[in-house]
Every structure is written in C-alpha cells, then in structure tokens.
C-alpha cells in the first residue's frame, strides 16, 4: 500500500509561512450524526496532521415519528415545525441516534452546531490561537458551515465535503467525488428529461475551489492500518492464507437488492472458497436481517468461514490491514474507497444494480483497474496490482495549497 505523506509542500515555504503568515493549530468538525459523513471529515483532519486537536459539533435533525417524513426540509425549518407540533400537543417520538465513537477518533465532547457561537469563537481567539479550520460533510451541515464563513470570513477556512449543490462560493474549498458531476456528462444528460435539467444539480462544471476525488475520504491511512495490524495481530495473523474479507452493506435507492443478491453472493462464495485459507464476513448496520440470515445459514457451517456477530471490538480496520483480498457489495462508496486504497484485490458484487451517478462510480473503479466484478470463478490466491486510491492524502495536499495561497499554513 502506498504510504500517505502529509507534508508534501517544500519545507522552505512552510517555514516562511509560519514566520510571516497565520498558523492553524486546531479544527472544528461539523457533523450530521451519520458515521459515513463524519468519518470523511475526521479522515481529512488526520491527513492534515490535526488529529487530537479537533472538536466535533453536530447538526441535530429531529428524528422519529412525523420527522421521518420531513428530511427533505432544511434543518432549521424542521425544528420550527417540531416546536409547533409540540405546542399543539402532537406527540413526536424521538429516535436514538448512534454517534461514532469519541474514543476511537480522539474527539472532544459533541456539541450542538451553532454557527454564531463558532464564528464568535473564531474571531475572539484569532489573535491568540490563529485561524480556525472548519470541515463539514453532509447536506444538513451546509447552512451551518456557510454561515460560519459568512460571519467570520477573515478568521476561518471552511472546507465542505460532498457537493453542496449550489453557491459553491460560500465555501473556501469543496471536496466532492467526480461522480457527483455525472448529471453534466452526455450519459447523465440523456437520463434527465429536458424540462428538469435546470433543476438537477450541479448545473455547471467544477470551479477553482472544487477538489474532485474518485471515492470517499476515510481514516484508513497507512498509520491507522499499521496500528490495526499490530492490534489485531494475535487474532488475524495466524489465520490460513489467503484471507478473504467480505463486507456487506445495505440496499439504497440507487443500488437496490435483497435476498436475491444474498443468494447470489452465497453461491459465488461457495464456488471460490476452495481457493481461500480463511473467510471473514462482516455486516453493517444497514444490512437487512433477511440478507444476513441467508448468508449465515449458507456459509457459517464451513470451517473456513467466520462471521462477525457485531459484538465486541469492530474488526474493520484489522480486516483492512490483514486481508489478502476483498469482496464488497456495490452500495457502499465508503467501504469500496477504503479497500481500494490498500492496493489489494477488490471484487464487487451488485455493481450492475447501481443506477445514476453510483453506476458511474462503479464504472470508474473498473476502468481504473482498482476493482473487478465478482463472478464466482476467481482464484483468491491470485494477486493483481493497481494504483491505489489516495483521495484523502491528495485532498489534504489541496487544502494545504489553498491555505498557502491565503498566507496560512497548518502546524503539524
């Protein structure tokens, strides 16, 4: 796996910026309670060398009851409606939100994201502590991060991960995957009725403040994998090789599947298991029970197969470190991005079920040679090479370059 180097710029430039410019020593992460979005922010924080010096603020969207039908509204409006419903005594059942682990990510206590308070803090501490780096991800965070930029433009540098759909000049930098611009491609245009094209975003090519990636940003850099390899050595190192890791996500609106894919995957794994020394299978929180039940029933009787039951420490990073090959369902951009950054063989099941821009993502992986469709005819001991995805480190480099243009730098 190609190592990630965090200080790519010349030492002389960095040193001169620290002497004559402003130095960033801290970061604020604006999250939305979704692990996939927040992990992208934390991955970028790690790649910038600010791990352990970040605070997590979270935009809390009302959940449960009628709120499950109101996710298309802006968070601020939904909160006003919730208050209105409570005043006229319409019960709104609250749903528990499972946050990412603070211990694993070195995050401080999670606070409510308030743009005015964060902007005030940035202004009041600017002379003593320098500029504030703000990193946000997810639709619900857009209004908060853009407001921070508007309220304290001289004191913050705002990075928005995932395409905010409009008015990209509200942010200093936008980091988004290339497939978010699929609507502008000839194939994308063909799928949009002409009378809807002006409403499908993005409507224009990426500007100078847009950084395009192949997949999602993540935390699985070389340092994290070395630590995971050490932490999971006693459990995973003795396993017979090759070790095949199978990661199962869950269906989405643009990648739908059910028991049919589970049966197909079970059959294919049974056909290739002869070439494996060991097989480790993990499910995500999004995996439907009917899907996991089929795979457990069909594969758990094989002595080569271990299925993680969700109890105890999550072996995900250990699997990334010790696996010899991966099989991953096509729905998860995050899991595919992590696996494709290791340089190890990655096989995808269900790519033909993806639609719209997610089909374009699958196509780009195969065209770059970083992933192949699972056929059931593979020999898992076969090694093939490709240029691993390095999106997180490359995005971090672009952040450093943009900061340098402003006369700022990050002290790592």
Automatic annotation (TrEMBL):
One GO biological process this protein is involved in is: mitochondrial fission
User: Which InterPro entries does this entry report, sorted A to Z?
Assistant: Elm1-like (IPR009367)
Q: Name one GO cellular component term.
A: mitochondrial outer membrane
Give the coiled coil ranges: none
Q: Which PANTHER family match?
A: MITOCHONDRIAL FISSION PROTEIN ELM1 (PTHR33986:SF15), OS02G0535700 PROTEIN (PTHR33986)
Stated name of the protein = Mitochondrial fission protein ELM1
The record lists the organism as Morus notabilis
Q: What is the lineage of its organism?
A: Eukaryota, Viridiplantae, Streptophyta, Embryophyta, Tracheophyta
